[in-house]
Specification:
The protein is an alpha/beta fold. Helix content is 30%, strand content 19%.
Length: 269
């Protein structure tokens, strides 16, 4: 409210019961919104988002990806999509991958993909809400929201403004990550967003020559972390140079990973 004094003790308004959800575009009908989050950068969250979206699309579901990582968007590149999104009287039309996945990212609106985004938090948060309210997503079974790392403005905006049905937390085996995962979990709990479970990326590496499994990032403690947080382990994704090469080449839809397919089956029930 414009006359808010920020002194809740003297205020009669029941702000805690007021919905902050942003309205969807009038031509959008989305059955499930899944946020993919991480407590820190460099855990492969966008790769997980892109390959999971592709796996769900192969299962016959209509899928979209909202790239909420405004200052570091990578989703269009993962799918090899470089055409510009465009506006109509009904709203912004998302780009579409060869496999039919709808995408919206700031890179699809920028004149140059390498131009830096030097905006303050409120402006970035406003763009994220526009990607929900102004984009004509149409009918989707799943919308995956690729969040930037951490617990800052954008994750807060997504949890408050979008009807998030579930949260996937991506992590890696390092000891440091367990603390950071707890921060992401606690934020989701504070926002009343249901957590679907944990995905461990870079879980291990299996030598293609001898078959020996190596724990590149150390012995995983995911089971202990998951038990302490009372969350299920959804998948463990090994290090696979072929997946990294495919995503770097814009061919996320070509990735066939047993671990990702297992994750898609779990989400698809």
């Amino acid at each position: 409210m414009s006359d808010c004094t920020h002194d809740c003790s003297s205020c009669s308004a029941d702000c805690g019961q007021r919905s902050l959800l942003a309205p969807p575009n009038a031509l959008s009908s989305i059955k499930r919104v899944t946020a993919v989050v991480s407590g820190k950068g460099g855990v492969g969250k966008s790769t997980v988002t892109a390959t999971l979206a592709a796996a769900m699309a192969r299962r016959g579901r209509s899928v979209g990806v909202l790239d909420a990582d405004i200052t570091g968007p990578s989703i269009p590149m993962a799918f090899g999509v470089h055409q510009q999104a465009y506006a109509t009287d009904n709203g912004i039309m998302p780009a579409v991958t060869p496999g039919g996945i709808k995408l919206m990212s700031l890179n699809l609106l920028s004149a140059n993909e390498t131009d830096p985004v030097i905006w303050r938090g409120p402006v970035i948060a406003g763009v994220v809400k526009q990607f929900w309210s102004d984009v004509v997503w149409g009918e989707l079974d799943d919308l995956f929201v690729d969040l930037p790392p951490g617990t800052g403005d954008v994750p807060l905006t997504v949890f408050q403004s979008l009807p998030v049905d579930g949260v996937i937390i991506v992590t890696t085996p390092q000891d440091l990550v367990s603390m950071i995962v707890a921060k992401a979990v606690n934020m989701a709990h504070m926002m009343s967003a249901p957590i679907l479970g944990l995905v461990e990326n870079y879980s291990c590496f299996q030598c293609p020559d001898c078959g020996k499994v190596h724990d590149i990032f150390g012995k995983s403690k995911l089971e202990q972390v998951a038990a302490r947080l009372e969350l299920p382990v959804l998948a463990r994704l090994p290090i696979d140079p072929a997946i990294a090469a495919a995503v770097d080449a814009g061919e996320a839809e070509s990735v066939r990973s047993e671990a990702i397919e297992h994750l898609a089956r779990r989400l698809n029930g």
